[in-house]
Design goal:
Elements: H1 6-21, E1 34-38, H2 44-53, E2 57-61, H3 65-72, H4 83-93, E3 96-99, H5 102-108, E4 111-114, H6 129-141, E5 146-150, H7 158-168, E6 176-180, H8 190-195, E7 199-203, H9 206-215, H10 217-221, E8 225-229, H11 231-262, H12 266-274, H13 295-308, H14 314-338, E9 345-349, H15 364-374, E10 378-382, H16 387-393, E11 398-399, H17 403-407, E12 412-415, H18 420-423, H19 427-433, E13 438-441, H20 448-453, E14 457-459
Parallel strand pairs: 1-2, 1-4, 2-3, 4-5, 5-6, 7-8, 9-10, 9-12, 10-11, 12-13, 13-14
The structure holds uridine-5'-diphosphate-xylopyranose.
Uridine-5'-diphosphate-xylopyranose binds at residues 183-187, 242, 245, 249, 283-285, 287, 290-292, 294-295, 353-354.
Length: 474
């Protein structure tokens, strides 16, 4: 793989490191590289936090001036536990700055990290317009050697496409290298995940991957594994990982629905499966279907990539479809529970796609609200962080302001997100507040016995009580 003989390669790395790390003749040379991160979202901000906390000079840039103004006024545009604390010291010390001046920060940086969104487009492919816009800026900014490190989840071949696009725009191919460095952090635990990654994947040529690896040296020293590979392999590792995790969730959700029919308990099924070391228990927790900014769009995008390469994406397509079917099955269950929605109030507890985030993208709550409103139900909702985001989509829902207010007079409570504060709910108080005591617990966080003692008709996710007359299944 290495195109350079060992000795000259090492020499090259030393020379390049020197160029990269000491290219500031007009000011005191920083000990660490100057990094420009493009994008101040769920990936860009934690990345900025960890890289600046390692002593690097980091400028985080975004074209959205309101976002930058908000951050510079001391308010983060997203809710992510521990993020504010992580950013505090680097901001105070001046190592971490936020700006809309994309070009000048790109010009000053030796490493440019791309962390812009790649949402799903109408045909299922990843929408790469934000990446293309960054390429336009890069073409103006590259006048000295830079490493372009792509962290955004991008289809296989995108890194090569960015390289070719820059060359086509007249940039000398020796003035830059492209590195693929996918991000694996989860929302809600982004800081912990960034500080303790299971692995660091770096794709690209030896001179650039060596430098990017050195950025992560503090994590590698602490024991994080790393893999140096090609651009294409690195890009695919991200999609393959997300598709595998989505497969596990889809699998256990299908098992949960089967458990409901046969009187089995999916939590015990998952525990029993997980005792097999080859299987393990991770990502086998049933719920209202996977949501968020990654699994739905990345499974779709992977299927699209495979279709383009004329490979039947039977499994990958099935994962996406099964997730949609799972969400529909839950809506049908709500329908069955309520019957006629006229004058009925349904209270949704949780709007975010998972706990500890304000992100509502592809959350089951969106499907639920759309369905309930279409059936003329009164919908109330409470979420510790997600209400502002959901209000922009569905202003007609009554939001909180407290959990108690949201459940008052409800004919059905649906628990959508596994927030800690829902796990410790006072079920007796909940029962008193309801008009009709029905509880659909899509995260299995309320104890069935307690709910039933308080008069609730309780329905969990794949945890129905064992039927005494369960039939033998052949
Ligand atoms: C995911 C990947 O985990 C992460 O590596 C990648 O960088 C981005 O995509 P994220 O979407 O933030 O992270 O959250 P995750 O914890 O993976 O949950 C995704 C969805 O799956 C959520 O809707 C969650 O509720 C659901 N889920 C997860 C389950 O239903 N069951 C599980 O066992 C795990």
């Amino acid at each position: 793989m290495c195109r350079f003989p060992q000795v000259s390669y090492m020499l090259l790395c030393t020379l390049l490191s020197t160029t990269v790390f000491n290219s500031y003749s007009d000011e005191q040379a920083p000990e660490k590289p100057r990094v420009c991160i493009v994008g101040t979202g769920y990936v860009g901000l934690p990345t900025a936090g960890i890289l600046s906390s390692f002593g690097n000079h980091v400028a985080c840039v975004d074209v959205l001036s309101e976002k930058i103004a908000q951050i510079n006024n001391g308010r983060l545009p997203i809710f992510e536990p521990g993020l504010e604390q992580l950013l505090q010291e680097p901001i105070k010390s001046g190592r971490l700055t936020f700006s809309t001046d994309v070009l000048s920060h790109m010009q000053r940086a030796s490493i440019i990290v791309i962390a812009v969104g790649t949402p799903m487009s109408k045909n299922g492919a990843a929408d790469l317009r934000a990446i293309d816009a960054v390429v336009e800026d890069l073409a103006k900014a590259i006048t000295s050697y830079k490493i372009i490190c792509i962290k955004s989840t991008v289809p296989v071949g995108t890194c090569a496409h960015v390289r070719d696009a820059l060359i086509a725009k007249g940039i000398n191919k020796d003035l830059f290298d492209i590195v693929s460095n996918p991000e694996f952090l989860r929302e809600g635990t982004a800081v912990q995940d960034s500080l303790n990654p299971d692995r660091i994947i770096i794709g690209g040529n030896p001179r650039a991957t060596t430098i990017i690896k050195s950025l992560y040296q503090p994590l590698i020293d602490k024991g994080s594994a790393y893999l140096i590979t090609s651009l294409e392999t690195s890009e695919l590792i991200k999609y393959a990982s997300n598709a595998m995790l989505a497969t596990r969730i889809t699998f256990i959700n299908e098992m949960a629905r089967l458990c409901d029919k046969v009187g089995a308990n999916v939590l015990d099924v998952a525990a029993g499966m997980g005792m097999d070391k080859r299987i393990g228990t991770a990502f086998l927790v049933p719920g209202p279907g996977f949501g968020g900014s990654c699994f739905p769009k990345d499974t779709k995008a992977l299927a699209y990539i495979m279709k383009n390469k004329k490979i039947g994406a039977t499994l990958i397509n099935a994962i996406y479809r099964s997730n949609v079917a799972h969400k529909k099955a839950i809506l049908k269950q709500i329908d069955k529970l309520i019957g006629d929605f006229t004058d009925k109030k349904v209270a949704l507890l949780g709007l975010a796609f998972k706990a500890n985030t304000d992100d509502i993208r592809d959350s089951f709550a969106i499907d639920a609200i759309a369905y309930l409103l279409a059936h003329n139900a009164h919908v109330s909702a409470y979420d510790p962080q997600g209400m502002d985001n959901m209000r922009t989509l569905f202003p007609q829902v009554s939001y909180g302001p407290t959990l108690e207010a949201a459940v008052q007079g409800a004919d059905l409570i649906v628990i959508i997100t596994e927030w800690n504060e829902f796990k410790t709910l006072n079920v007796a108080n909940l029962a008193q507040a309801c008009r009709t005591k029905r509880l659909l617990d899509l995260r299995n966080i309320i104890d069935r016995a307690t709910a039933e003692q308080n008069g609730f008709t309780y329905i969990g996710m794949g945890v129905c009580p064992v039927k005494k007359s369960a039939k033998m299944i052949h």
